[in-house]
Write a structure and sequence with these properties.
Blueprint lengths: L1 E7 L4 H10 L4 E2 L5 E5 L2 E5 L7 E6 L4 H4 L4 E4 L1 E2 L2 E2 L1 E2 L1 H9 L1 E2 L2 E2 L12 E4 L8 E8 L3 E8 L2 E8 L3 E3 L2
Antiparallel strand pairs: 1-5, 1-6, 1-9, 2-5, 3-4, 7-8, 10-11, 12-13, 12-16, 13-14, 14-15
């Protein structure tokens, strides 16, 4: 008995999980709990932690799991499904609170932190975090045109470097 990963068809997670259960397979689809603001209203959603994948327990035969409706097959290595270590599943389940995986909070940025621009025209540039601006924007000091320039970017366009 071991865990493996199944690829799922887009927006057909429920069908795949149902059909796998009908065929006798135990499944696990870890989900997140997200809080967002949409058009001024707070909305709670429950997206999969790994979009397009679920975990399946293989006991004897694995062939029918790959052909279940809603799936696009198992993740394979040669002719056999790739085994997912039990410790990975146990770690995911240990992080669950009320049935949803709680991811660790990222460390907050502090003035002087070294950051890397990940999106946009300045992608790949290294800079120094200078502070937060309104509307989820950040100010970063970048070496441009021979001197340090203040640039305002979306918060999602930078990440902390190590």
């Amino acid at each position: 008995m071991y865990w493996c990963a199944a690829r799922l068809q887009p927006n057909r997670e429920a069908l795949a999980l149902h059909c796998l259960a009908l065929r006798g397979y135990a499944t696990y689809l870890p989900r997140l709990r997200e809080h967002r603001v949409v058009r001024g209203r707070k909305v709670e959603s429950y997206p999969p932690l790994f979009p397009g994948y679920c975990f399946v327990v293989i006991e004897l035969q694995w062939h029918t799991a790959g052909w279940a409706p809603g799936t696009n097959g198992l993740v394979m290595s040669g002719n056999l499904p790739v085994r997912v270590p039990d410790a990975v599943i146990a770690d995911l389940r240990a992080r669950e609170v009320d049935g949803y995986v709680q991811l660790p909070k990222p460390r907050e940025l502090r003035r002087g932190d070294r950051v890397c621009v990940t999106h946009g025209l300045l992608a790949g540039q290294l800079g120094i975090y200078a502070g937060m601006k309104p509307h989820q924007r950040v100010e970063v000091l970048l070496q441009l045109l021979g001197s340090m320039q203040r640039v305002t970017l979306p918060r999602g366009a930078i990440e902390l470097t190590r």
